[in-house]
Amino acid sequence: MTTCYINGNYRDILESKVSITDRGFQFSDGIYEVIAVYENRFVDIDLHLNRLIKSLNKLKIKINLKVNQIENISKKIKKLNNLNNGIIYIQITRGDQHPRDHKFQKGLKPNIIIYSIPKDFKKINSKAKRGVTTSLYPDIRWLRSDIKSISLLGNSMAANYAKEKKNHEAILYDKKNYITEGNSSSIWIIKNNKCITHPLNYRILKGCTRHKLISIVKRKKLKFVEKKFSIKALLSADEVFMTSATNFVMPIIKVDKHKISDGKPGQITLHLRDEFINQI
């Protein structure tokens, strides 16, 4: 049994229900967060919860829980489900509204759901040693990727395209052939010992792993720049990697049929992954 927190109660996840009038179900009107638990430790929980509050504020969703209360609930879910390795998933929608209307009513009570999912980080660590393959896919998502919205149809289409190609992730590109991010990750390249990733704006999410890695890169006195880079720059990079809550720092060795450098995980990438995990 997996125990889920739902609107103040702790229940079996299979018995936890929301109404079909929920605006998350009707309009994708809600946000979510994914917090990793690695070897019994929360990873960057403060960064994730702060981002959750910022996403709520951008959508003007007001909840009656404070950050420390959400953290305590997450810790209780971790304990109840004996989670040593996995994720805590948080989803908050604007709430139930009847009759259906694009315009939301005032005073709706948000639906707040928190539960856990086990993950085998040994498999992920093993993948990192070999590196992963990816697919290019057009970025067809809505234009507010800075909000961690539950509106993930574009991401899902990209992820399943990569899956059909037997690849780990889809790398998204815009109409001018600039890389934005992955279907569920931030994308980085290394060229001439310089670490490069897309600047923060409305087109990408402020990744918590991305944020933490920037501080590691700077502390290691590696060259770092936030700027747009093209598909051409991606394919000609010395190293490519992705960052995310569950992959941490994951080497990318191939994009479609194009090998990155010699087709092996880059040494700088592997070093940054080790540093990230050491900080956990």
Structure, described:
- The protein is an alpha+beta fold and 280 residues long.
- The protein has 2 domains: 3-119, D-amino Acid Aminotransferase, Chain A, domain 1, CATH 3.30.470; 124-279, D-amino Acid Aminotransferase, subunit A, domain 2 (D-amino Acid Aminotransferase, Chain A, domain 2, Alpha-Beta Barrel), CATH 3.20.10.
- The protein has helices spanning 23-27, 45-59, 67-80, 121-130, 153-164, 208-219, 231-235, 267-279, and strands at 3-6, 9-12, 30-38, 41-42, 86-93, 111-118, 132-138, 169-173, 179-182, 186-191, 194-197, 223-226, 239-244, 248-255, 258-259.
- Strands 7, 8, 9, 10, 11, 12, 13, 14 and 15 form a 9-stranded mixed sheet that branches.
- The mean pLDDT is 98.
The fourth-level CATH homologous superfamily of the largest domain is D-amino Acid Aminotransferase, subunit A, domain 2
Radius of gyration: 19 Å
The run of helices and strands is EEHEEHHEEHEHEEEEHEHEEEH
Tell me the overall shape.
globular
Which CATH class of the largest domain is shown? Alpha Beta
**Beta-strand residue fraction:** 25-35%
Quote the average pLDDT: 98
CATH fold group of the largest domain: D-amino Acid Aminotransferase, Chain A, domain 2
User: Could you say which structural class the secondary elements and strand pairing correspond to?
Assistant: alpha+beta
Fold blueprint:
Elements: E1 3-6, E2 9-12, H1 23-27, E3 30-38, E4 41-42, H2 45-59, H3 67-80, E5 86-93, E6 111-118, H4 121-130, E7 132-138, H5 153-164, E8 169-173, E9 179-182, E10 186-191, E11 194-197, H6 208-219, E12 223-226, H7 231-235, E13 239-244, E14 248-255, E15 258-259, H8 267-279
Parallel strand pairs: 7-8, 7-14, 11-12
Antiparallel strand pairs: 1-2, 1-6, 3-4, 3-5, 5-6, 8-9, 10-11, 10-13, 13-14, 14-15
